[in-house]
Amino acid sequence: MSALTPEEIARYQRHLTLPQFGEKAQLKLKQSRVLVIGAGGLGCPALQYLAAAGVGRLGIVDFDRVDLTNLQRQILFAEDDVGQLKAEVAAEKLRGMNSCIEVEAMPVRFGADNALEILRRYDVIVDGSDNFPTRYLVNDACVLAGKPLIYGAIYTFQGQVSVFNFQGGPTYRCLFAQPPDPEDAPSCSEIGVLGVLPGIIGTAQACEAIKVITGVGEPLSGKVLMWDALSMKQQIIRISRDPDLPPITELREIEFACPVVPDLPDGVEIGTGAFKSLLQGGSPVQVLDVRHGWERAICKIDSAHISLGDLTSRKVDPCRAGLDPRTPTVVYCRSGFRSLKARDFLADHYAFSRVFSLKGGINQWAKEFDTSLRTY
Q: Which domains are present in the chain?
């Protein structure tokens, strides 16, 4: 066991002075190898705290590039990093945080073809992914490789953390045996998240990883921590290993896609080309934006505005707001999902006779007909 250097002793002295931690635990961190899958909202804080804590080798798997929309919650990145590979940017910044550790950047897609080879080089796996196929793939790979998995997930204002596949404890499939039906899952393009939430959950994942590595404390194996940002309430639910789960013998990637708008009968949707012709035709037409107010600040088509929530909760009456149910009406949102709901609500509850949802939303309109509009 290599001893701590004088620099490391100075750097980690707050750990060394903890009676329950001390030099023994710090040496375990120094010799550990932790893989973080995903350098996004969860991965960023997990990586930062693991690097600061002195994990000897950190691996980062992420093939995505930094986008402006990431900066609201992925605080490892800055505006100058937009467009660059997340794994490489994160690795460079972590090396700057702590020169005593090694960081490996892997800007590759984590798939069934490379998962076991990547996991083989690490002791503990932290899942910072944001989609169901990757979560199930990471879980199954950890089971086959015999690696403990630090799980985290977020949804709007809520988050959860657990430790899977640890010392005979339950796995992710014991909690969720199968992925949800894509039709029942939240829309990948429409869902939001409070920016500080992944910071809290990702930090908790780092804490669990440190506990697993050092043996200090009681990891969340067999337990799921549920945390609510709006109420600041948390609870722990207990789970057990499911003996009836079929054994995992191979890696298979789950096919899972965000729901797409199905083929709809005439009179429900209108394409961007037909919408343009309608606007230029000279006949009366009403346009209604059902997005949030902040979205209109990014881009908008000249239109009336009632958010979908205000419309369906009847906080705003469209007729009193100046819309005529007898006039042809085109409803739009970001990508065409909310506008479909609004279109049906207007037809069913306010007798709008000729109301259409703009197919593809304002993003499709901007792409095809108005490139001056900023998409998001």
A: 32-238 (3.40.50.720), 269-368 (3.40.250.10)
Q: Which of 181, 153, 335, 176 is CA-nearest to residue 255?
A: 181
Angle at 211 between CA 219 and CA 224, to 5 degrees: 25
Q: Percentage helix, strand, coil, to 5, in the chain?
A: 35, 20, 45
Closest CA to 160 of 237, 86, 265: 237
Dig out the tokens for 164 from the structure.
Answer: 């899977």
State both tokens at 296: 């209109």
Cα(37)–Cα(146) distance, integer angstroms: 17
pLDDT at position 304, please?
95
Residue reference for tokens 């798997």: 61
Active site residue 333: yes
- How confident is the model at residue 264, as a pLDDT? 43
Identify the active-site residue in 44, 142, 299, 333: 333
Q: How confident is the model at residue 263 (pLDDT cuts 50, 70, 90)?
A: very low
Element (H, E) at 345: helix 338-349
Catalytic residue among 100, 188, 258, 319: 188
